[in-house]
Structure formats: C-alpha cells, structure tokens
Amino acid sequence: MRKILLLLQHKQNRYLLSQLLEEAGYEVFYPSVDEDLIKLDNTFDLCILGPIALDKFGDWVETTKKAEEPVFLPFLLITSRSDVKMVTRHLWKTIDELITNPIEKIELQVRIEALLQKRQLSLNLKDANEHLHNLNELKSRFISVASHEFRNPLHIILAYTQMLYRGGEKLKSEKKKELFTRIKASAKKMTDTLDDVLILTKGELTAQKLNLQLLDLQEFCRLLVAEIKMGSATNREINYTVQGKSTKAYFDENLLRHIMTNLLTNAIKYSPSDTAVDFDLIFQDTNIIFKIKDTGIGIPLKEQSQLFESFRRASNVGEIPGTGLGLAIVKQSVDLHGGKIAVDSKDGVGTTFTVVLPLKEDKD
C-alpha cells in the first residue's frame, strides 16, 4: 500500500481528501500543520500540501527531497490560482506537480498515480543500481580469489611438468610418482574451486530441487568424520558424539555432505593442529542439530554479519588458503532444506556453528 502524507491547513479539506484517497486504496496520514515535521518518523511515498504548509515548511520539503536522492520523492501542491504567486519562492525547487482548486477527482487521481509511478521507477532503478554494484563487487572478489587460488596450483603444475619433460628419463619411478601426485593434487584443488563456484551459481540462479534420500544420519556422519580425518595432513582429532534417539530421515545427501565437510574442514583449518574439533549430532522430535566447535582463530564480531556472502573471508585468516565460497554454499544448502544456521564466535577464542534442519521421516 502506497503511503501519502497530507499537509493541509483546513481540517474539513484534509478530512474529505483523506476519505477520497483511502477509498482509492492509499494509506493516508495527516499530522497537524503546526507539528514539528523534522521529528516526523513516518516514511511516505507522496506528500500533498497546501500553500500555507509550503510557505512554512519549504526548507523541510527541500531537505527531505534531497535526503531521498537519488530516489524521487514527489510533492504535490493544491492551491488556488490566486495563491500560486504566494508560493513562487519554493515552487520550482520543491514542488513536482501543481493542481488548482476546484479539484477534479479524476484529474487528482491521474496526477497522483503519475507521481507514484515515477517514484516506483526511481526505486526500481536504485535497486537495479545496487544490484549491479553488488555484482561488480562480487566479480572483483572472484577475480581476486581466483587469481590467488589458481596461481599456486598452476605454478606447481607448470614446474613439475617441466621437470618431467626435461629430466623425466633420469628421474626414479618413486620421484616421478611423487611429482604426478602433486600435479594431480594441484589440478584437483583448481577443480574443487571451480566446482564451488558452479554449485553456488546454480543455487543462486535456479530453484534447485532437493534430491531427498533416506539416510542413517549417525552412520553418515561417522563415515564422514573418518573420511575427513584420513584426508587431514595432521590427522586431527574430531570428537564425534550422538545425543538423542538415532533415526533415519530424508535429506539431500550431496548438500548435507557440503554442509558438514565445509564446517568440519574449516574447523580443522582455522584452529591449532594440536587441538581437537567437537562434532555433536543431536536428534530431537522434529529437528536434527549439527554442532561443530573449534578453539581456533575465531571470527571478528563486526564481520560475522557478512560471513555467508560469496567470496567473503575474515580479516584475520592471514595466509591460510581459501576462496570464501564454502560458507556461502553451506548457507544455501541449509536454506534449501528449510533449516537455519547460527554462528557463535569470538576473535582469538574459537567458533561454534550450529545447523538446525527439519527432520523429515517421509519424502513428502
């Protein structure tokens, strides 16, 4: 509902006009012309005012319009022909449309609609510009991350392939195997980064459907923990506990794997190698809760609100590698399940992520 502010001196005129506008579907409010409009809390889409109000509050009108820029905030003046000269001082600086008494109902409605449509177009344009600005920021962050994340693997691949090309015949088979393993690992790192980008883009641009499968969550998480521990260079300890009555439920296995893998590997990556990560699986009547806790570097409080945005990384990560895509994928995957994710973190102390997903015991 579009909101109209009335600033008319005569109560009867104010009442009649408000009735007309409300019948047409507008939301109307009308403080007294004697009120201090600087303290006015209500936002509005159009102001209809008379010559006395314009003369008294001309500076306020001009300031209010400028404060809304670049969005168009229209002001419509209702006056008699004889009063037009009285308001000439403010007319062209502040007034967007003028209508003279006696008012024709259809003419008033047409002018109001024209002004409101113009305001809506300016709001749409502002939103579009903000969206383009965000896309440009996203593009810049992607280029920065991609150049950083691809540079090292590419250098490794080029260096080792050059070694194999120039002296491959002289190298022992074990050395060749080691070089090929490192080349493969570097290529996989690049592929994983691209996969993350594609997953995120697909989820943002399409209404991705869940591929629900009946999972034994306790066993699923146990195997995932073992897999992550095996892949960890430092063979980190993960304290996996289960609370509540274990049950099978329907989830998208791939998305659930993305959620758990990202959170667990982040907990390992951003905490000291001699500390353990706690992973609690909690069964409730209607929900399943995953809680991952570490005692690592933590996340600065002022940056936590942007944590789930694409290509965002905390300022305290230093040289720890990463793309800033993992948590964006986690958030998207949680949302697709109709769940919630929360973070409790303190810089230099540690972080706890809590994921709550609805427990679905049937596919429907």
UniProtKB/TrEMBL annotation:
PROSITE patterns: HIS_KIN
Catalytic activity: ATP + protein L-histidine = ADP + protein N-phospho-L-histidine
Keywords, alphabetical: Kinase, Phosphoprotein, Transferase, Two-component regulatory system
Pfam family, one: HATPase_c
GO molecular function, one term: phosphorelay sensor kinase activity
InterPro entries listed in its UniProt record: CheY-like_superfamily, HATPase_C_sf, HATPase_dom, His_kinase_dom, HisK_dim/P_dom, HisK_dim/P_sf, Sensor_HK_Regulatory, Sig_transdc_His_kin-like_C
Domain of life of the native organism: Bacteria
EC numbers for this chain: 2.7.13.3
Residue ranges annotated for the Histidine kinase domain, each copy included: 145-361
UniProt keyword Transferase present: yes
Function: Photoreceptor which exists in two forms that are reversibly interconvertible by light: the R form that absorbs maximally in the red region of the spectrum and the FR form that absorbs maximally in the far-red region.
Name assigned to this protein: histidine kinase
Source organism of this protein record: Calothrix parasitica NIES-267
Lineage: Bacteria, Bacillati, Cyanobacteriota, Cyanophyceae, Nostocales
